[in-house]
Amino acid sequence: MLTKERKEKVVAALQKAIQARSYSGEEKEVVGYLEKLLKDIGYDTVHIDRYGNIIGCIKGKKNGLKVLMDGHMDTVPVQEEKWKENAFGGEIKDGKIYGRGTSDMKGALISMALAGAYFAEDTKKDFSGEIYVAGIVHEECFEGVAAREVSEYVKPDIVIIGEASELNLKIGQRGRAEIVVETFGKPAHSANPEKGINAVYKMMKLIEKIKALPMTHQDKLGYGILELTDIKSLPYPGASVVPDYCRATYDRRLLVGETME
Ligand SMILES: [Zn+2]
């Protein structure tokens, strides 16, 4: 149960986590803080893996499922001149905590860590299964890479991710693929374009065709979008040359049951 005293402890722990700046790849300080915190609040074991992820575990008295509560520790950088508050202060104003990573996602990570500990305390560990809480490194730039290492270590039956969802329960997420499309032409001087094949013109036709493809749809996950995110031609800059190469990148969001093909 979340008593007043416990709530204050969650807030204080979050403030400290915010004060430990943790840009992607620079999570050491916050990991050090979490290591101490997890041990203090009663986690049986605290493991730091080769990537720097931190994993706390509390075992119930009976065997059962492994529940992993997962949250990344890193944040995107701050443009301090755009902040009215101290981005690493963790100060409270009008009932809100201010600081980089408060909602994305140290708030959730600290809440989950303490929720696990309080549950163990209330039940005196008389429950089935194992509770894991994991702080993940380098999520903002390489989503999923470090988390896979944690999955490998824990082998969880259930995973709860604490990313902000306006307190709505989100039960799934689309997968992601980056698709690169290339066209090849034949270079020529642009004064005599008929002697070459313009790779960009080929790409333009392809883009139109791709855009006309029907989007896949799934009730809960929505559309399996395929969106053009960048396009590049070579040589670049191509002054007076018919480009013989063009490359377009697509962001594809995958739905349940889709195959590689
Ligand atoms: Zn996030």
Detailed description of the structure:
This protein is α+β, with helices and mostly antiparallel strands and 261 residues long. The chain has two domains: 4-161, Aminopeptidase (3-Layer(aba) Sandwich), CATH 3.40.630; 175-254, 2-Layer Sandwich (Alpha-Beta Plaits), CATH 3.30.70. 29% of the residues lie in helices and 30% in strands. The protein has helices spanning 4-19, 28-40, 102-123, 145-154, 199-212, and strands at residues 45-48, 54-59, 62-72, 92-93, 96-97, 128-136, 158-161, 175-184, 188-189, 216-218, 222-224, 226-234, 241-242, 245-254. The strands form five sheets. The chain has a five-stranded mixed beta sheet, sandwiched between helices. The protein has a three-stranded antiparallel beta sheet with strand order 8-14-12. A two-stranded antiparallel sheet has the order 4-5. A hairpin with a 5-residue loop joins strand 1 (45-48) and strand 2 (54-59). Helix 1 packs antiparallel against helix 2 (28-40) and helix 1 packs across helix 3 (102-123). It is elongated. The mean pLDDT is 96. Zinc ion (ZN) is lined by residues 72, 104-105, 163.
Question: SSE layout and pairings?
Answer:
Blueprint: H1 4-19, H2 28-40, E1 45-48, E2 54-59, E3 62-72, E4 92-93, E5 96-97, H3 102-123, E6 128-136, H4 145-154, E7 158-161, E8 175-184, E9 188-189, H5 199-212, E10 216-218, E11 222-224, E12 226-234, E13 241-242, E14 245-254
Parallel strand pairs: 3-6, 3-7
Antiparallel strand pairs: 1-2, 2-6, 4-5, 8-14, 9-13, 10-11, 12-14
Helix pairs in contact: 1-2, 1-3
The chain binds zinc ion (ZN).
